[in-house]
Write a structure and sequence with these properties.
heterotrimer, A alpha+beta (362), B alpha/beta (256), C mainly alpha (224), A: alpha+beta, Rossmann fold, 6-stranded mixed β-sheet, 9 helices, C: 224 residues, MetI-like fold
């Protein structure tokens, strides 16, 4: 019964929501979709802040069941909610904000980290006596996450909480959050419309469009699916691959990774030799060549075989999928190139990868 | 209009015409300021004056204290019908009123009133000592002062202190009784004269000093024949009948 | 007017303003809360009724209050419980009148303060396990503190300056209902302009101070 099962349907004005999903109550499930597709409404319905006809079950507990007339008020649900804006209590300092959740928790009061431990884990111990208005955006969100976790929730609901943060802070905060979540074993449902975030966070990905579910699955599977472009967005389309750290090159400050027997060189990978890491390769960062090019600055050249070619109607482009010894990456190239190079499934090619982003340790 | 009244002044000074005749033959205007308690009879007297002379009367109403303050600040009135004697006297002393024009146009009478239930006599004042008694503010209103005097004469040993509630003027005093907030009130006879006689007890005049209401001609109207005509009219028998009908006692014919 | 009498008038005025302000906060807060949160179609009706004393002349309020406090109104019934006949001419009656008269000055700032922080803090509190009551006392009230401060100052000052209503329901009883504004009126009416000047100047100074303090509070908050 350790599942999160949600089914809600209803309308608000012109907007119709008809959404059902069922996902394991462990790890991070990401609810992914463009702005305005109803992601936030789903979270609010789960938390009980909004009511639509349907059912909400979380880890064996019934939070809403219309057939039995059950609708728990939000303060009886033990759902930790981290909003897009940190929404700290302006009249309380950081410590009091953290205590607010812990004091009112429904679970056993003695268990889990104390306020001080949590502040330490989040690296905000030195801010404890400050008021929220004297914190940076990243610090505020860390307090908000700590506050939600200290309320010992059965489920953590997160509504794009890192959107406003700059890239570096965002990266740090996300990895801090992932470590902490794992440690406390609290499942999370995370709303996002940003592929980079999904790649970094998701154990399970639920894709939404126009108020209902499009598909659900592992992020690596979903990223490969060319036909999901309308839901995932063209520009950010790409794939996730898993590689192993094989060597650290201190002379050039590069990390050598092994991807299905071929080498990849990346700067700034925060992982030890032997560790597996998840990489994201965007389709627009990949070019194809029929022979291995020489005299070129690109270091990451992978040989593989074309498995799929999909021409995009009404544009100059085509999406191709290349199999690299079992890992699949996508390349977005012009239709003209497809025709002139004779790219069809089965063709041997070299994939020139201009940029790879390191997402997280697996 | 200003030119006309100036013309009149010339005529009057040269003694060619009696003011009364002048007023009758050519329409003029008089502005009177009247203490609120006398507003109803004043309106009737004004109408009678207008009918008799063809002149126009513009009347303003207010508390005696307020009208006095306004006159000191040069309010445009010709005649002041006060609810007391002090304010007209003061105006005289300050040179704001025409000397010797002042006279008592009405004498107020005090009545004990219980809001519509029968009043047999002053015994009601001490019948139930939890009853509040409404009076006019004795500091401000002659009716209030008279009420305090009458109470002291009627019941010399009685302490009315905490039972008295004060209206700012005699109208508010009646309001307290009419709304039932005060069970009894010492109000103006003129206010209850239309009620059945059993519902009030007329306080004998001997129990308090006279509630004399004086009228005075203001300095700015010294040369206004219509104003003088109105002063004369106020002393006349027609006005006297009206004044009596409203529960005021006979004038004391003094002054000029 | 002697010093003792002056002191008694000032003390009574202060006492009335203090008690009235407390009652206003107790009565005004639920009204402001309801107005800030409700989606009922009666909201604007209630808001208009609560704002009426802003526009109505005090004489209208005073007249209705005189009737409502009297023997045939609810006030008379209340007074009857303790053997009285009316709530008019009593300190309690004056407090009731003042509360009605100054209600908009208290409801509006508190309502604004409640509306300013929106739903979010209350939603956060609920997801953290706070019941609606708990959230009201631990989140809404503290967040609305500036509004309460403004409301208290306005209610207090407006009660001090109140005249028409007191005049109509007070009965001018020394030590019970004779407050400073009525005393000034009497002084002017009876020609004691010297003392009237003294008290009036005091009120002007008081009002000036109140407005200054409010402006100061406002700008301090703006900087913060």
């Amino acid at each position: 019964m350790d599942r999160i099962a949600v089914a809600v349907s209803g309308g608000k004005g012109d907007f119709r929501l008809d959404m059902a999903f069922d996902t394991p109550a462990n790890g991070v499930s990401v609810l992914f979709g463009p702005s305005g597709c109803g992601k936030t409404t789903i979270l609010r319905c789960i938390a009980g802040l909004e009511r639509m006809p349907g059912n909400v079950m979380v880890a064996g507990q019934v939070w809403q069941d219309d057939s039995k007339g059950v609708f728990l008020p939000p303060h009886h649900r033990a759902a930790g909610y981290v909003f897009q804006e940190a929404s700290l209590f302006a009249h309380l300092n950081v410590r009091e904000n953290l205590e607010f959740g812990r004091k009112r928790r429904m679970a056993q009061p003695a268990q889990g980290p104390s306020v001080d431990e949590m502040a330490g884990l989040l690296g905000i111990a030195h801010l404890c006596n400050r008021k929220p208005k004297h914190l940076s955006g990243g610090e505020r969100q860390r307090v908000a996450i700590g506050r939600a976790l200290l309320s010992a929730p059965r489920l953590l609901l997160m509504d794009e909480p890192f959107t406003g943060l700059d890239r570096q802070i965002k990266k740090e905060t996300i990895s801090l959050f992932l470590d902490l979540r794992k440690r406390l074993g609290i499942p999370a449902l995370y709303v996002s419309h940003d592929m980079a975030e999904v790649a970094a966070l998701a154990d399970v990905m639920i894709v939404m469009a126009d108020g209902s579910k499009v598909t659900q699955g592992l992020p690596s599977e979903i990223f490969e699916k060319v036909e999901l472009q309308s839901a995932t967005g063209r520009f950010e389309a790409g794939t996730l691959v898993v590689a192993t750290v094989s060597d650290k090159d201190s002379q050039y400050d590069l990390t050598r990774l092994d991807l299905s027997g071929q080498a990849l060189f990346l700067p700034g990978v925060d992982a030890a030799v032997g560790e597996k890491v998840r990489l994201r390769i965007r389709a627009r960062d990949v070019s194809l060549a029929l022979g291995r090019p020489t005299g070129i600055s690109i270091r990451n050249i992978l040989s593989g075989q074309i498995t799929e070619v999909v021409a995009e109607a009404d544009t100059a482009f085509a999406e191709t999928v290349v199999d690299i010894g079992g890992s699949r990456i996508r390349a977005r190239i012009t239709r003209m190139a497809v025709d002139e190079l004779g790219l069809v499934p089965g063709k041997e090619v070299y994939a020139l990868v201009k940029s790879v982003s390191f997402d997280r340790r697996v | 209009m200003k030119l006309l009244s100036r013309l009149f002044s010339l005529l009057v000074i040269s003694g060619m015409l009696l003011p009364f005749a002048a007023a009758r033959s050519l329409a003029g205007e008089v502005r009177i300021a009247v203490a609120s308690n006398f507003s109803v009879p004043a309106r009737e007297i004004a109408r009678a004056f207008e009918t008799a002379t063809g002149n126009k009367v513009t009347a303003s109403f207010g508390s005696t204290g307020k009208i006095y303050a306004q006159i000191v600040q040069a309010a445009p009135f010709d005649i002041f019908l006060s609810a007391d004697q002090e304010r007209p006297q003061l105006l005289e002393q300050q040179g704001l009123a025409v000397s010797d024009s002042r006279f008592t146009y009405a004498l107020g009478r005090l009545a004990l009133y219980a809001g519509g239930t029968d009043v047999k006599g002053p015994g009601l004042l001490v019948a139930d000592r939890s009853d509040r008694i409404a009076i006019a503010n004795p500091e401000l209103a002659p009716y209030g002062r008279a009420a305090v005097e009458a109470l002291a004469k009627l019941f010399p040993d009685e302490d009315f202190g905490s039972r008295l509630v004060q209206g700012e003027n005699i109208s508010q005093t009646l309001q307290f009784v009419e709304t039932g907030n005060a069970r009894l009130g010492l109000v103006a006879y003129s206010q209850v004269i239309s009620q059945a006689a059993a519902q009030y007890w007329l306080v004998p005049e001997g129990l308090h000093s006279p509630i004399a209401q004086d009228a005075v001609l203001l300095k700015s109207a010294d040369a206004n024949p219509v104003a003088r005509a109105f002063m004369d009219f106020l002393r006349g028998s027609e006005a006297e009948n009206i004044i009596r009908r409203y529960g005021y006692s006979a004038h004391v014919r003094g002054g000029s | 007017m002697g010093t003792a009498e002056l002191a008694s008038i000032l003390w009574l005025t202060l006492k009335l303003a203090l008690v009235t302000t407390l009652c206003l906060l107790v009565v005004g807060t639920p009204i402001a809360w309801w107005l800030a949160r409700t989606r009922s179609r009666f909201r604007d009706v209630v808001a208009s009724v609560a704002a009426l004393p802003l526009i109505l002349p005090p004489t209208v309020l005073g007249f209705y209050l005189l009737i409502a406090l009297g023997p045939s109104g609810p006030g008379g019934w209340l007074a009857g419980l303790s053997g009285g006949r009316t709530l008019a001419f009593t300190f309690e009656g004056l407090v009731i009148g003042s509360v009605v008269y100054s209600l908009p000055f208290v409801v509006q700032p508190i309502r604004n303060a409640f509306e300013a922080f929106g739903e979010r803090p209350l939603e956060v509190a609920a997801t953290l396990g706070a019941s609606p009551w708990n959230a009201f006392f631990t989140v809404a009230l503290p967040l609305a503190r500036p509004g309460f401060l403004t409301a208290a100052i306005l209610g207090f000052a407006h009660t001090i300056g109140e005249f028409g209503v007191v005049l109509m329901i007070g009965g001018n009883i020394p030590g019970e209902t004779r407050v400073i504004s009525v005393a000034i009126y009497d002084l002017v009416e009876s020609g004691d302009w010297g003392t009237a000047h003294l008290l009036s100047a005091g009120l002007v100074l008081f009002s000036f101070t109140v407005i200054m303090v409010m402006l100061r509070l406002g700008s301090a908050r703006g900087e913060g």
